[in-house]
Known about the structure:
193 residues; alpha/beta; seven-stranded mixed beta sheet; two-stranded antiparallel ribbon; 9 strands; 33% helix; globular
Amino acid sequence: MLGAVLxxxxxxxxxxxxxxxxxxxxxxxxxxxxxxxxxxxxDEVVLIASKNNAEKLRGLGYDVxxxxxxxxxxxxxxxxxxxxxxxxxxGDMPLIVPEFVDYIIREFRKNGKAVCVPRWDNGYLEPLxxxxxxxxxxxxxxxxxxxxxxxxxxxxxxxxxxVSIEALPEEWRVSFFNVNSRGDLRKITARRD
Length: 193
């Protein structure tokens, strides 16, 4: 299973390129990448970048694909699935739990659905911590052609496998934490291993 890290955001709320902001001596995005790499069911990690930050990210030593669509997460996911099935996460998620990643992939394989996505009891989805099949790319292509870029709607329409977050170990929930502002950096240093 491919691990695809979406790295195309502009970091407006953060006030700059948050993915390269150094935490504990390394860029924020490397925290997400390294945790993803330690998941047993991830074979390879690639970065999905925008044309604005692709060159900087190539310096990290990973394969970088450029999302030319610039339509948000759906575009990055569409590019990632050109390489095959993928577990997709956001580059600003430094506390990913490798055991949770393995669990999602196991459920994805077991259920045989196009998508396996964590869902809260209130119906809120976590689409940037989910597994997608290569076949889902065709469905996304149709959505993109019709200019319907709402990823959550596409997921719901695809008859997905849902992973109930509340039924899982509570300590796995930190996996969803993402950095939006500089204030969030304090939370990372407090929670880091």
